C-alpha cells in the first residue's frame, strides 16, 4: 500500500545493512576503550541506530534526544526545539550523534555546539544519509553511509507527516503526495 506513493527506491534494505556493518566495524576501532554515548535523534534515527549498534563490538552507551525542526512540513523551519534531552552528563564523554539524514544541517550544528559547551570530550556525527545540496550551515558528518541527491526521501525512519518511517528501504516520495 505505501509503495504506491514511492517514485523509486534510492537505497535498498540490503545496501543499508551492508553499510551499517562496514560503519560498525570502523566505529569499533575508533571507539575501542572509550565507552562513547551514541545519541539517537528521535524519531528518524531508530531503524538505522538499531541496525548500526548490532555491528559495533566495543562498549557503548545509548541515549536519545527528541528534537523538532520540521513541524509537519517538507523542509526544516530552522527553529530547534529540544523536547527530550539525554539523561546523562556529557562532560568528558565521547558523543556520537546518530542521524537518519543531514539535510540543512541546522539541527545537528546546534546540537554539536550545545554538547561542546557541555564539555564533551568529543562530538561526532554518523548519518545514514547526507544530502549536501540541502545544506544551509557549514557542517559535515564524520561518518556517512550514503550521499543522496536533493530529493524528498522517506522510509527507514524518514517520514512525511509521520508516515512512511516503516518502509524497509529509503525511497523518493512521489511529488503529488506532498504537494496536495
From TrEMBL:
Known cofactor(s): Mg(2+)
Domain Phosphoribosyltransferase stretches: 13-160
CDD domains xref list: PRTases_typeI
Family membership noted in the UniProt record: Belongs to the purine/pyrimidine phosphoribosyltransferase family.
Pfam family name, one: Pribosyltran
Gene Ontology molecular function: guanine phosphoribosyltransferase activity; hypoxanthine phosphoribosyltransferase activity; magnesium ion binding; nucleotide binding
SUPFAM superfamilies to which the protein is assigned, alphabetical: PRTase-like (SSF53271)
Keywords: Cytoplasm, Glycosyltransferase, Magnesium, Metal-binding, Nucleotide-binding, Purine salvage, Transferase
Enzyme Commission code: 2.4.2.8
Protein name: Hypoxanthine phosphoribosyltransferase
Function description: Purine salvage pathway enzyme that catalyzes the transfer of the ribosyl-5-phosphate group from 5-phospho-alpha-D-ribose 1-diphosphate (PRPP) to the N9 position of the 6-oxopurines hypoxanthine and guanine to form the corresponding ribonucleotides IMP (inosine 5'-monophosphate) and GMP (guanosine 5'-monophosphate), with the release of PPi.
Main localization, broad class: cytoplasm
GO BP term, example: hypoxanthine metabolic process
Pathway(s) per entry: Purine metabolism; GMP biosynthesis via salvage pathway; GMP from guanine: step 1/1; Purine metabolism; IMP biosynthesis via salvage pathway; IMP from hypoxanthine: step 1/1
InterPro entries found in the cross-reference section: HGPRT (IPR050408), Hxn_phspho_trans (IPR005904), PRTase-like (IPR029057), PRTase_dom (IPR000836)
Catalytic class of the enzyme: transferase
Keyword field contains DNA-binding: no
Reaction(s) the record says it catalyses: GMP + diphosphate = guanine + 5-phospho-alpha-D-ribose 1-diphosphate; IMP + diphosphate = hypoxanthine + 5-phospho-alpha-D-ribose 1-diphosphate
Gene name in the database record: hpt
Top-level division of the source organism's lineage: Bacteria
Example of a GO cellular component annotation carried by this entry: cytosol
Amino acid at each position: 500500500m505505501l509503495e504506491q506513493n514511492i517514485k523509486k527506491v534510492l537505497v535498498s534494505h540490503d545496501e543499508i545493512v551492508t553499510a551499517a556493518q562496514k560503519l560498525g566495524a570502523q566505529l569499533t576501532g575508533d571507539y575501542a576503550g572509550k565507552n562513547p554515548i551514541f545519541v539517537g535523534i528521535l524519531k528518524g534515527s531508530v531503524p538505522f541506530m538499531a541496525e548500526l549498534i548490532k555491528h559495533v563490538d566495543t562498549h557503548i552507551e545509548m541515549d536519545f534526544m527528541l528534537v523538532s525542526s520540521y513541524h509537519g512540513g517538507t523542509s526544516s523551519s530552522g527553529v530547534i526545539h529540544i523536547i527530550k534531552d539525554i539523561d546523562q552528563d556529557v562532560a568528558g564523554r565521547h558523543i556520537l550523534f546518530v542521524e537518519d539524514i543531514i539535510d540543512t544541517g541546522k539541527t545537528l550544528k546546534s546540537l554539536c555546539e550545545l554538547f561542546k559547551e557541555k564539555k564533551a570530550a568529543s562530538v561526532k556525527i554518523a548519518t545514514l544519509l547526507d544530502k549536501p545540496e540541502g545544506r544551509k550551515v557549514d557542517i559535515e558528518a564524520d561518518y556517512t553511509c550514503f550521499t543522496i541527491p536533493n530529493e524528498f526521501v522517506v522510509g527507514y525512519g524518514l517520514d512525511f507527516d509521520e508516515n512512511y518511517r516503516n518502509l524497509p528501504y529509503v525511497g523518493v516520495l512521489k511529488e503529488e503526495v506532498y504537494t496536495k
